[in-house]
Design goal:
This protein has about 400 residues and is of the alpha/beta class. It has two domains: about 120 residues, 3-Layer(aba) Sandwich (Rossmann fold); about 230 residues, Glycogen Phosphorylase B (Rossmann fold, 3-Layer(aba) Sandwich). Helix content is about 40%, strand content about 15%. The strands form four sheets. It has a six-stranded parallel β-sheet with strand order 10-9-8-11-12-13, with helices on both faces. The protein has a three-stranded mixed β-sheet with strand order 1-3-2, covered by helices on one side. A two-stranded parallel sheet has the order 4-5.
């Protein structure tokens, strides 16, 4: 590893978040901010991770640290700067912890003996040698005021997706502007995000969408296989969109380019009539707000959002889709189990490798408008109640209070 670099964190007014909440919740958030400002006066909260863009950790830190700074708490952010070999090792360790947690933690345990607290997104992720008195469970959250999660009208959704070529009505690509988090004006850039030849879906077509990193554990390949096998002769208005970031822009994931290339090769091997309705999209990453607006529009336009992860730490793409009121079908793994009560907030695929089961769940949602509507409403309430940033910030204030005592 070469060094660490500082990431600029511009303060955000806590009121941007408070405005998204009911009055009682907003009051609790303001009270927690006052308490945190008092507790941490003269102290610095340092955050260290692998990358400032791409993936849920970077996205959460961008919002949470900005709100903390806006509340008068000195939070700072460092990212690791390493060569490809370093990130190859960290990626392998990441996958190793997913697949063989006991042995993985044995490797790390000697370096963690003196920490004051262990923070996990789920209690089940903590190895058995962690002292329960030092174990804190803090699930992830989304920022409802961010470019990715703020409300969009139907007309705005349509314009964004036509601009980037993810849908087309034959009338060109309109210019689309949006407000950035700092209040400045941004523009969705016109670029072909669809990687492979073929006509984009029409605005009226129904989209089955998975948005995730190009990561084998997200199993984009499995979603493509399921669609090709069970929807090849299905309704012509049903399309699949697999969307991930530009792989060259995600420094800490060396597998991304390999996985994307594998999916492209798989797509090329499909019959022509299936290729017309299956689309791989690499979304721009240079401008985080631009990327967020595209993802926002795509998740809102989807008839159903899928997250067919083989393993999953938490699954913020699930949270995002729930918040938007889009029906969600996701594997019953990891933190997804904490987000979805099967049949109420979404539908769970008990075996993440079950291609038949995935296709059947997709058909259920596409064929039953009442079910889709119920799942959308339930999912939005679930995300609103459990997984917004105010809960996350308050839990960290409580954590710091305990550590300082």
């Amino acid at each position: 590893m070469e060094a660490m670099e500082s990431v600029e964190v511009r303060p955000l007014s806590l009121e941007e978040l408070a405005e998204q909440l009911e009055p009682d919740r907003a009051k609790l958030l303001r009270q927690a901010a006052d308490r945190g400002r008092h507790l941490l006066r003269g102290r610095v909260v340092w955050n260290v991770n692998a990358t400032a863009r791409g993936g849920g950790v970077a996205e959460m830190l961008s919002a949470l640290l900005a709100y903390a700074r806006g509340a008068g708490i000195d939070t700072r952010w460092l990212v690791l700067v390493g060569d490809p070999d370093f990130f190859d090792i960290t990626k392998r360790l990441h996958n190793f912890l997913h697949g063989s947690a006991g042995e993985g933690w044995s490797l790390l345990q000697p370096y963690l003996r003196d920490v004051d607290a262990f923070i996990f997104s789920r209690k089940e992720y903590a190895p058995d040698w962690v002292d329960p008195g030092r174990l804190v469970v803090i699930p992830p959250s989304i920022d409802p005021a961010s470019c990715k999660n703020r409300p969009l009208t139907g007309a705005q959704v349509d314009a964004v997706l036509r601009r980037v070529g993810l849908i087309s009505d034959g009338h060109g690509r309109p210019e689309v502007y949006f407000s950035r988090r700092d209040g400045s004006r941004g523009q969705v850039k016109e670029r072909p995000t669809v990687l492979l030849d073929g006509s984009p879906p029409r605005p009226e077509d129904r989209l089955v969408v998975q948005v995730s990193r190009w990561d084998r554990l997200k199993d984009m390949s499995g979603v493509l296989t399921s669609f090709a096998r069970y929807f090849a002769d299905g309704p012509e208005d049903v399309h699949l969109v697999l969307a991930g970031g530009e792989v060259s822009k995600v420094a800490d994931d060396p597998e991304g380019a390999e996985v994307l290339e594998e999916c492209m090769a798989q797509w090329r091997g499909l019959p022509e009539h299936v290729r017309r309705r299956a689309h791989l999209a690499a979304l721009p990453m240079e401008d985080g707000d631009d990327n967020a607006v595209i993802v926002n529009a795509l998740q809102r336009h989807a008839s159903v959002v899928v997250q067919k992860s083989l393993m999953e730490g938490f699954g913020l793409t699930v949270t995002e889709a729930l918040w938007k009121g889009t029906p969600v079908i996701a594997s019953a793994v990891g933190g997804i189990r904490d987000q979805i009560v099967d049949g109420r907030d979404g539908l769970l695929l008990e075996d993440p490798r079950d291609l038949d089961g995935l296709a059947e769940l997709i058909r259920r949602v596409l064929d039953d408008a009442g079910l889709a509507s119920r799942l959308g409403r339930g999912g939005k309430e679930r995300a609103k109640d459990q997984f917004l940033g105010d809960r996350h910030l308050i839990q960290y204030v409580d954590l710091f209070a305990g550590l300082i005592r």
